[in-house]
């Protein structure tokens, strides 16, 4: 599986704005978040095949190829210059946990990111803030 990039979890999660103990328990010993090529269900392949239109039409992203989406997500999460819209930890029917984080891109748009507890990015999709759920911290 191709690794597109890897960053420390502390870069992608603004620990000052969320309950850090809950996030630390979620990730456990996982030191990094990574974007892998994945498949149709998770990773960059999933993100591009399911959300290409959102990346192309969201103003200011400049993400019109899967490589540009990877670069955008890497710099956005690595640099940590964002406001979080909150987070939620969800458990699927088969018991897998996923961290869903809402980030603010600008006054009109946000970015929803789902990360598995082993640090893999499942999905990331730009969304109009009017359609984003404001999670409780």
Your description of this structure?
The protein has helices at residues 9-12, 20-27, 43-57, 66-79; strands spanning 3-8, 32-36, 83-91, 97-104, 109-116, 121-128. It has 137 residues and is of the alpha+beta class. It has a four-stranded antiparallel beta sheet. It has a two-stranded antiparallel ribbon with strand order 1-2. Strand 3 (83-91) and strand 4 form a beta hairpin. The longest helix has 15 residues, at 43-57. The chain is globular.
Helix/strand layout:
Elements: E1 3-8, H1 9-12, H2 20-27, E2 32-36, H3 43-57, H4 66-79, E3 83-91, E4 97-104, E5 109-116, E6 121-128
Helix content: 25-40%
Shape type = globular
Please give the count of helices.
Answer: 4
Distance between the termini: 33 Å
Features:
137 residues, alpha+beta, 4-stranded antiparallel β-sheet, two-stranded antiparallel ribbon, 6 strands, 30% helix
Describe what is shown at a glance.
This protein is an alpha+beta fold and 137 residues long. Helix content is 30%, strand content 32%. The strands form 2 sheets. Strands 3-4-5-6 form a 4-stranded antiparallel beta sheet. Strands 1-2 form a two-stranded antiparallel ribbon.
């Amino acid at each position: 599986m191709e690794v597109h990039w890897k960053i420390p979890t502390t870069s992608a999660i603004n620990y000052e704005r969320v309950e850090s103990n809950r996030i630390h328990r979620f990730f456990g010993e996982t030191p990094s978040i990574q974007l892998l090529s994945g498949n149709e269900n998770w990773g960059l392949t999933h993100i591009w095949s399911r959300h290409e239109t959102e990346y192309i039409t969201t103003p200011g992203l400049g993400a019109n190829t899967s490589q540009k989406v990877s670069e955008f997500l890497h710099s956005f999460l690595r640099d940590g210059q964002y406001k979080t819209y909150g987070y939620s930890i969800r458990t699927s029917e088969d018991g897998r946990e996923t961290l869903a984080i809402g980030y603010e891109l600008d006054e009109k748009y946000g970015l929803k990111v789902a990360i598995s507890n082993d640090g893999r990015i499942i999905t990331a999709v730009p969304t109009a803030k009017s359609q984003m759920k404001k999670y409780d911290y």
